[in-house]
């Protein structure tokens, strides 16, 4: 689903910080 993809992107960005 698109929402799952968006959530995954946010989690990846948060992990990068």
Quaternary organization:
single chain
Calculate Rg over CA atoms: 8 Å
In N-to-C order, the SSE pattern is H
Structural class: mainly alpha
Outline type: rod-shaped
List the helices and strands and how they pair.
Blueprint: H1 2-16
List keywords for this structure.
17 residues; mainly alpha
Summarize the structure.
The chain has 17 residues and is mostly helical. It has one helix and no strands.
Structural notes for this entry:
It is built from 1 helix and no strands. By secondary structure, it is mainly alpha-helical. The longest helix has 15 residues, at 2-16. The chain is rod-shaped, with a radius of gyration of 8 Å. The protein starts with a helix and ends with a helix. The mean pLDDT is 72.
């Amino acid at each position: 689903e698109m929402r799952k993809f968006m959530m995954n992107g946010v989690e990846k960005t948060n992990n990068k910080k």
